[in-house]
Amino acid sequence: MGNDGGSIPKRRELVKEAARNPTTTQIKETHQEQQEYHWTTCPLSHKLLSQPIVSDSSGKIYNKDAILEFLLPVGGGTPGMNKSDNEEVLEGRVRGLRDVVEVKLAPDAQQTEVKGRKQGERWVCPITNKALGPGVKAVYLVPCGHAFSESAVKEVSSDRCLQCNEPYTSENVIPILPASTDEIEHLVARANRLKDQGLTHSLKKAPGSSKKRKKNGEAVVAVDAVPTLTAMQAQPSNAIGKSSNPQPGSGTDKPSGGIKNAATASLTAKVLEEEKEKTKRRKIAGNENLQSLFSKGKEEKMIGDFMSRGFSIPAGARR
């Protein structure tokens, strides 16, 4: 029948194998499998990697068409792609095409095709002709994107790309699919420094940084315009008119008051026009001829209040 207390299972009967820490060999095998997967498969579309290939600030590589579909608005991409899952993969590193660099990998000319079996593209270092893939440290340069083996870049020790001769710095040598903790921390620190400088992974200006600089520039213009306006108001009106109106024979229109900044010149012209309007109103208010048109004489005749000045009957109303 069972459940009567007659048979009590022991721990060794329930736990067949005790939990053990993975050995070094198992760790290497797992790491090798992950490297092979990421070198052959795009983590966004889960398709084989094929040119064009792009990489973000973390050194991971993707198919460019998968990045473009991810950047499309909701409902505009491939129905099979889950945008929320892709956001977890990218971890907010890609907000636009400026956040990725196209990696220019040299294809392996000796790659053999196997019939009836899909194989991913294979690449080699154009300098050492060493295969780039799992087990080989590969890097690419920013901003050109040419990929080499890490040993080739270290041995040549040049500040220009070996393919296109474009200059680069040691900070912009990005490891492809980094595995060590030091390389990952180095890439994170580089991304933070570029963000503080208003730059993206491709060393282009970030979209938000230009707006902030524009706002700061307008604030500087407004502050600089104050002493210029006070100095121009101190000048006679004839001098201001001559300086503000350009001569017809000149090739380019000079800004008003000799101000080189166009925004400051337009602001100065508006303030001067407002001052002229105020001056006109003051002159009209102080003109005696205009003041005589109003009922000043009647107020002099009507001395006293309505209780003491009496009431006069019009001459036409008397009998």
Model description:
- There is one protein chain.
- 40% of the residues lie in helices and 8% in strands.
- The model is unreliable at 217-234 and 236-256 (pLDDT under 50).
- The protein has helices at 11-14, 24-40, 64-71, 83-90, 150-156, 181-196, 207-234, 237-244, 262-285, 288-291, 297-301, and strands at residues 53-55, 61-63, 101-103, 106-107, 123-124, 131-132, 138-141, 147-149, 173-175.
- The protein starts with 10 loop residues before the first helix and ends in an 18-residue tail after the last helix.
- The strands form three sheets. A three-stranded antiparallel sheet has the order 2-1-3. It has a three-stranded antiparallel sheet with strand order 4-5-6, with no helix packed on it.
- 15% of the residues are buried.
- It has 319 residues and is mainly alpha-helical.
Strand order of the largest sheet: 2-1-3
**Cα-atom radius of gyration:** 40 Å
Which stretches are low in confidence, meaning pLDDT under 50 for 5 or more residues running?
217-234, 236-256
DSSP summary, beta strand count: 9
- SSE class: mainly alpha
Q: What distance separates the N and C termini?
A: 140 Å
Q: Residue-averaged pLDDT, rounded?
A: 76
Q: How many helix segments? A: 11
Percent of residues in helices: 40-55%
Order of helices and strands: HHEEHHEEEEEEHEHHHHHH
**Shape label:** elongated
Tell me the strand percentage band.
5-15%
Biggest sheet statistics: 3 strands, antiparallel
